[in-house]
Amino acid sequence: MPLAEAMGYILAVSFFVAVADRIQANAIASATIKLLAAGWLLYSAVRLWGMPFLTDAKSLRLLFVRVLLTTVVNPKAMLVGTILIPSGASIQAPVWVATYAAMSTLAGLGWVVFGGCLPLGVRRHSYRLASLILGGFSMAAVANAISG
Predict the structure, then answer these.
(1) Angle ∠(8,9,10) on CA atoms, nearest 5
(2) For the chain, what percent of residues have pLDDT higher than 70?
(3) CB-based contact 82:20 (threshold 8 Å)
(4) Which residues contact 104 (CB under 8 A, 6 or more apart)?
(5) pLDDT of residue 88
(6) What is the C-alpha to C-alpha distance for residues 71 and 105, in angstroms, rounded to an integer?
(7) Number of domains composing the chain
(8) What range defines the domain where residue 30 resides?
(9) Given a cut of 60, is residue 55 above it in pLDDT?
């Protein structure tokens, strides 16, 4: 899953770096993107809540795609691409994007190791906990879109 996350961030952050000036200048575009991301996060949270813990190879492929898509619409990618990467850094943008993708991959691997160390009884509830966290991020994205 960290690979899916890294791929998602490379795609999304690269997109937001390319259109950062236009998004920042258009409040409607910014709010629309945030609301779309919030909707996807909420949809993912609902789906994740009911997902069985034990997965087969087909479920793992679907989970890979879901993590990739969820990362692509993650509001954090918009923040990184429009705010954290310096404006006008077009020549250095690939280095910034790759650095962010590497850091997020390392963080993702850390979470995988942490999750693997949890007792099975706790791990069974990990999808529901992740669902609650995604739902919280969704609500925060809606609040941010509404507040401007």
Answers:
(1) 95
(2) 92
(3) yes
(4) 2, 5, 6, 9
(5) 66
(6) 12
(7) 1
(8) 2-147
(9) no
Q: What is the pLDDT of residue 56?
A: 62
Q: Which amino acid is at 71?
A: T
Long-range Cβ contact pairs of 96-101 (< 8 A, separation 24 or more): 96/17, 97/9, 97/10, 97/13, 97/14, 97/17, 98/10, 100/9, 100/13, 101/6, 101/9, 101/10, 101/13
- Measured between alpha carbons, how far is residue 130 from residues 8, 123, 140 in Å? 18, 11, 15
Closest among 49, 19, 37 to 143, alpha carbons compared: 37
Place of tokens 């996807």: 40
Q: How many CB atoms lie within 10 A of CB 9?
A: 27
Strands (E), the chain: none
- What is d(CA 113, CA 115) in angstroms, rounded to the nearest whole number? 5
**Residue 53 · residue 130 · CB < 8 Å:** no
- CA 118 to chain CA centroid, nearest Å: 23
